[in-house]
Amino acid sequence: MPSRRLAGFAVLLIDRMTRHGTTLLASCVCLGLIWPAAADTVRPAMPVMVFIFVLGTLLRVEPPVVIATARRTGVSVVLPVFVMIACPILVGVAAIAAGLRTDLVLALVLAVSAPPSSGTSAVARMLGLDPAVPLVATLASMALTPLTAPVIADLFSAGSSLAVAPLDLALRLVLLIGSAEGAALLLRRFVGRALNRHARAVDAGVVTALILFALGTMSGARAMIENDPEFAMGVVALAFGCNIFLQLFAALMFPGNLRMRFTTGLIAGNRNVGLLWSALGAAVTPTMALYFAASQLPIFTLPRVIQSVLYRLEAARRTRSAT
């Protein structure tokens, strides 16, 4: 009887975490700013959290669904190319045209060169969107990352003291992504059936990793804001502006119904900056770290806004249809 109660409580907890994940993510970002010590404690575990939610994304691959979605070339080819090549080049050119300083331009380009956030599929599920589309787009984008991110970073850092070694970055990305893919293949091979039975527990693990990652990204953010509040607020505004622009741009560029457009926007706007952050290591400058931290704010707070906007738009559409 106690074991049944414990199992029931675990199922309820997983359900609540998945259902209210957007609120939890936003709350943890705020917690990290209010309580810097908690963010500092979690910060060293960020690479592990990145590994967990990349692994979780790969473990949630359901071959029949993924194969069916992957046959849509708009999702498996066009969208990843748009996200991984067109978006960072567009953002980099716009940043240079706007006269932003070199280290901030490179921070923007690196952030947008990252593949879609590995938690986007889980976030899409929280929002009631189709999780298969971000899953396929993320998998294809992750495969492209070691090829595209180093080249684009080198293109925008060439000639500056902030030059990024493309080969070194590519090798680090291959190691990070390849190790997660290898672990996923082994787990699928030996405990595949158990994973399918406990798919919601995998989702809960991804959400937990996202929550801790969101908390850890705020490490040092409060100090940087207090040291130069005007510049820091400008960087935060830039991060929100970039994310919202990419979401709106992708939603307008790609066809589909309202939910599909919201899904496409999430894929383009929310990037796995932690992957590049972990791969770059000591090469990350204070300005890059500030922008990378700031870029987490829209990733973890906008889904709650999107949830509200989507609900209102669909309610308005139902009202119009009824009349």
Automatic annotation (TrEMBL):
Transmembrane helix keyword on record:
yes
Organism the protein comes from: Tistrella arctica
Q: What is this protein called?
A: Bile acid:sodium symporter
Q: Which domain of life is it from?
A: Bacteria
Transmembrane parts of this sequence? 42-61, 73-98, 104-123, 135-157, 169-187, 199-225, 231-254, 275-294
Instruction: Name the UniProt key words of this record, in alphabetical order.
Output: Membrane, Transmembrane, Transmembrane helix
- In the UniProt record, does the keyword Ribonucleoprotein occur? no
